[in-house]
Amino acid sequence: xxxxxxxxxxxxxxxxxxxxxxxxxxxxxxxxxxxxxxxxxxxxxxxxxxxxxxxxxxxxxxxxxxxxxxxxxxxxxxxxxxxxxxxxxxxxxxxxxxxxxxxxxxxxxxxxxxxxxxxxxxxxxxxxxxxxxxxxxxxxxxxxxxxxxxxxxxxxxxxxxxxxxxxxxxxxxxxxx
Length: 177
Fold this sequence. Notes:
Layout: H1 2-21, E1 25-30, H2 34-46, E2 49-54, H3 57-66, E3 71-75, H4 83-93, E4 99-103, H5 108-116, E5 121-124, H6 129-161, H7 163-176
Parallel strand pairs: 1-2, 1-3, 3-4, 4-5
């Protein structure tokens, strides 16, 4: 039993360390304007991100479901499926997925709606790339902390669950010796 506990514990620690240990984070850029999409790709690649693209929310959602991303950067107004609808669907499937929204049509209402629906941040075009990088780093750090906290909670539950076993082992060992 103790061996099983140790094995589970090591698997949890390994899964967190390998997930967070990846150097290159993968970002999905969902933007209908090809020029802006290409500019974002080049800028993000220079910042050592692996980048994938989609030209609308529907394609972005399909790619999200097929691949693993560390962050999604999306425009709001797009054909086929807008960024807000995509954001809502993604958050239903993975509430912790970091999503940064960009728009050329800012309004207080759209900003509030995006943040209420789970966007990590909101940027207005034209994008200041230093601001974009800071917001991406902040969202990635938040996701990392969430993963660590979840893993620690699981480890604590396992430790607490095994207390009676440790007490029994101690009791039997005290009888033997």
